[in-house]
């Protein structure tokens, strides 16, 4: 057997370039799946996955909804973000900029997408198909405000999400979903449609609206 270089299998320059490109893409994808924790509170730091019906809000909408939740939760209030990662992320950003700590709120993200386990104990795995399958430490009526945006525009999905929302909330509910869900939102949770129009980072075919069960500036 010879040990000369001639016996070592060689890749052509083109094959080598393709392989390097493949690994470079893989590295980028991996970074996208798990952004550094410091960046992970930026809306869009986790790419939308349309298989999970993920449509992130525009920065303006995420900020408006987060500010609304903070105002309604009150001093040291608790906010449940049900299938609304962008609102959770924006709440974390706003809280990190806050100077007066006595006013701070706390928030928990209830989500199906396990990439958000990056948020540690503030992430709770949630599948709307099992609406009351929640960890024991999540007590009933333990959140001042619940904000929810169900993955599907169907009565079946909204009625299950409504069970979770009613379990979690002390009273206040802020829902974002399609305009076509207005009647179901009223019947299931007593919600009124708002004038404020939520926007997404990509335009959606369906008209979206916000709904509340309390006096809100979003209404007018
Ligand atoms: C229409 S998006 C709402 C996201 C919101 N617009 C935002 O920017 O935060 C629906 C959300 O439901 C989540 N989701 C998908 N399948 C779910 C399931 N089986 N149970 C609960 N949530 C689910 C998605 O991951 C996504 O965050």
UniProtKB/TrEMBL annotation:
InterPro entries according to UniProt: DNA_methylase_N6_adenine_CS, Efm5/EEF1AKMT1, Mlase_EEF1AKMT1/ZCCHC4, SAM-dependent_MTases_sf
Specify the protein name. EEF1A lysine methyltransferase 1
In UniProt terms, what function does this protein have?
Answer: Protein-lysine methyltransferase that selectively catalyzes the trimethylation of EEF1A at 'Lys-79'.
Provide the catalytic activity annotation. L-lysyl-[protein] + 3 S-adenosyl-L-methionine = N(6),N(6),N(6)-trimethyl-L-lysyl-[protein] + 3 S-adenosyl-L-homocysteine + 3 H(+)
In the record, biological process GO terms are:
methylation
Among the entry's GO cellular component annotations, what is one? cytoplasm
What is the gene name? EEF1AKMT1
UniProt KW keywords = Cytoplasm, Methyltransferase, Transferase
Annotated PROSITE patterns: N6_MTASE
Q: Does the keyword Methyltransferase apply?
A: yes
* Intracellular or extracellular location(s): Cytoplasm
Q: What is its EC number?
A: 2.1.1.-
- The superkingdom listed in its UniProt entry is Eukaryota
Which molecular function terms from Gene Ontology are attached?
A: nucleic acid binding; protein-lysine N-methyltransferase activity
The organism that produces this protein has a lineage beginning with: Eukaryota, Metazoa, Chordata, Craniata, Vertebrata
Q: Which family does it belong to?
A: Belongs to the class I-like SAM-binding methyltransferase superfamily. EFM5 family.
Entry keyword Transferase: yes
């Amino acid at each position: 057997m010879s040990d000369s270089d001639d016996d070592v299998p060689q890749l052509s320059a083109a094959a080598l370039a393709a392989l390097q490109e493949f690994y470079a893409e893989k590295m980028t994808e991996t970074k996208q799946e798990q952004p550094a924790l410091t960046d992970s509170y930026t809306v869009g730091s986790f790419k939308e996955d349309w298989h999970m019906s993920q449509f992130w809000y525009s920065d303006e909408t995420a900020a408006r909804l987060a500010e609304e939740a903070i105002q309604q939760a009150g001093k040291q209030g608790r906010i449940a973000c049900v299938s609304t990662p962008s609102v959770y992320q924006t709440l974390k950003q706003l809280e990190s900029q806050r100077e007066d700590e006595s006013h701070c709120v706390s928030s928990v993200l209830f989500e199906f997408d396990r990439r958000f386990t990056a948020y540690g104990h503030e992430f709770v795995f949630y599948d709307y198909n099992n609406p009351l399958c929640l960890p024991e430490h999540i007590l009933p009526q333990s959140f001042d405000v619940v904000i929810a945006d169900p993955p599907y525009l169907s009565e079946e999905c909204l009625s299950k999400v409504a069970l979770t929302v009613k379990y979690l909330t002390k009273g206040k509910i802020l829902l974002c979903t399609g305009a076509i869900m207005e009647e179901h939102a009223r019947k299931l949770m007593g919600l009124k449609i708002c004038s404020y129009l939520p926007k997404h980072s990509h335009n959606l075919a369906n008209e979206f609206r916000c709904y509340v069960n309390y006096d809100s500036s979003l209404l007018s």
